[in-house]
Amino acid sequence: MKSMVQHIEYLLTRHDCVVVPGWGAWIVQSVSAVVAGNAAPLPPRRWLSFNASLSHNDGMLAHSLMRAEGCGYDEAMAQIAAEVSSWRVALQDGRCVELGNIGSFSTEEGLLLFKESPRSVVNASLAMLPPVALTPLAEMPQEEADDVPSGWQPVQEPSLARRVFAAVASVAAIVVLLLFISTPIDNYPTQNDYASIVAAELFAASSQTQAVTAEAAPVPESGVETPAVAVAVADELPAKREPAPEVAMDVVPRYILVVGSLPSYALAEKQIGQFRASGVTDPLYIYDNGGKSRLYIAGYATLAEAQQHLEAVQRDAASPYEGVWICRTR
């Protein structure tokens, strides 16, 4: 069974914000590569910050426990509350709370302090990008140019034999190319030949069949049963089903239930395709704020309505969504 810290580490590698109800929230911040003046370029990196005021329950951690241990929502919330209680007892005793590759907590003058681990899990994907040391061009050693003698230099012309050989080779290459162009490579019978042979054979077979049929039984009247059969076959053909278009929302609500956070709009559309392939038929929307593309299933005008729907989704064990959380759009 995974510990609570392992669940938090896993969620931090997939989301920008992970909330522990009753304790606080970790927020992942990213910085792009920096190239400033003559200083060495710095690689991109990510780091963690902690906000104790964000302690509302978004259900992400509880849903992770439910999925890993097969327990119910109430049991998962009880496990989280017990773990948070043990952390508070350790801080009251003056001890430091170590949370694996996330960091540690301590208290100083009644304030809760968080120190990120040097082996932070959020920076694992960028750990192989060290700072690059570049030498300015002005400090690089200059190579001396080769001395070029001045004056005219005699140019040796090719011999007569070489020129004749080159001309003969060029003519031979042109002749071979013309032969390839003028001579057809594929000399197979055309479709017309096949059609004439098949038509002749069918005509002969049809004549023999009609003769035998005339001797065996009278020919029924033509044009009576054919239309009925044609209509019956046409009725049995399945109608082509048109794919249902994606539902678009013109105005983004104030609070939305997010089921996925993607770095681009194209990846959000691809995630919708994966949901559709897995059998999800609920309407899905995309909220793009310029930095992230949020994939959400519903929107509400008030936070209370959003929390009520969030709890209903979290209690649904058959829900196809993982880590549903509330996002404020404005």
UniProtKB/TrEMBL annotation:
Pfam families assigned to the protein according to its UniProt record, in alphabetical order: HU-CCDC81_bac_1, HU-CCDC81_bac_2, SPOR
Domain of life the protein comes from: Bacteria
Entry-linked SUPFAM superfamilies: Sporulation related repeat
GO MF annotation terms: peptidoglycan binding
Residue ranges of every copy of the SPOR domain listed in the record: 249-328
InterPro entries: HU-CCDC81_bac_1, HU-CCDC81_bac_2, SPOR-like_dom, SPOR-like_sf
Protein name: SPOR domain-containing protein
Source organism (scientific name): Candidatus Barnesiella excrementipullorum
